Amino acid sequence: NLVNLSELYLQLNFLSGSLFDHLVQMPLLEIADVANNRFSGSIPASVASLGQLKTLLLTSNLFSGNIPAALGSLLPSLQQLALSGNRFEGLIPSTLGQLSSLTYLDMGRCGLSGPIPSELGQLSQLTHLNLAQQTITGFIPRELGSLTSIEKLILTQNNLRGNIPSELGMCENLQVLDLMINNIGGSVPLEICALRPDPLGSLSTDCRSQ
Predict the structure, then answer these.
(1) Is 208 buried (19+), middle (13-18) or exposed (0-12) by CB count in 10 A?
(2) Which of 73, 106, 161, 165 could form a disulfide with 142 if both were Cys (CB 3.0 to 4.6 A apart)?
(3) Residues 54-60: what's their mean pLDDT?
(4) Which residues contact 209 (CB under 8 A, 6 or more apart)?
(5) Section 110-139 average pLDDT
(6) What is the pairing mode between strands 87-88 and 62-65?
(7) Taking the CB of residue 6, how many other CB atoms lie within 10 A of it?
């Protein structure tokens, strides 16, 4: 009976089986780091019962299924969410845009598809966003230009198309913008070229030519 547990660190082991059956019985939990194990199963909607949760790190496990909308809509205290290196499927929930305290969102290499929700542009505290190495489609939402705290925006190796939105030039704290291996066309917007330090070092020739 661990109902008073507030921090759980199990990373870098060989643990397996279902995790959330136990986590949802810890209503005071604030930090759960179970990265680099062999936990499996889906994230249940009952994760919403963890109302005090600030950090949820599930990186490099065997989790699968859809990411529940409740993960975004009912966890107002969440600051760090890492789901990369798992076997999820389906879309990125638009409700993640309701996580107003979120500073770190890592969802790379976890099997997601579909468009990037424009609602992610509401995450004004976000400094790190990784959606790399999946089958994400559509355009880069211009709403991401509202991420005024963002430092790293990583969208590598997807099926994104269209142009780089000039609104990203409003991300004055941006240090890394990684758009490699997509179907993006056009030129680098002047607004992004004007950012310092240059987050597009690999495209600096395009910036100099403008």
Answers:
(1) exposed
(2) 165
(3) 97
(4) none
(5) 97
(6) parallel
(7) 12
**Cα four-point dihedral sign 35, 6, 53, 39:** positive
User: How many CB atoms lie under 10 A from the CB of residue 25?
Assistant: 15
The amino acid at residue 118 is S
pLDDT digits (tens, 9 = 90+) for 128-139: 999 999 999 999
To 5 degrees, how large is the angle CA 111–CA 141–CA 130? Answer: 40
Per the listing, tokens 């070092």 go with 201
Residues 6+ apart with CB under 8 A from 184: 140, 160, 161, 162, 163, 164
What does the pLDDT average to over 115-120? 98
**Of the candidates 88, 191, 177, the residue with the CA atom closest to the CA atom of residue 140:** 177
Whether residue 199 is predicted with pLDDT greater than 70 in this model: the reply is no
Distance between CA atoms of residues 141 and 119, nearest Å: 9
d(CA 192, CA 144): 13
Which of the pair, 199 or 112, is modelled with greater confidence?
Answer: 112
- Which 8-state DSSP code applies to residue 16? E
CA–CA dist 29, 47 (Å, integer): 11
Q: List the beta bridge partners of residue 129.
A: 105, 153
Residue 177: CA count within 13 A, CB half-sphere: 28
Q: pLDDT by residue (tens digit) across 9-35?
A: 999 999 999 999 889 999 999 999 999
DSSP state of 21: H
Q: Can you read off the two tokens belonging to residue 48?
A: 């919403």
Q: Are 36 and 58 in contact (CB under 8 A)?
A: no
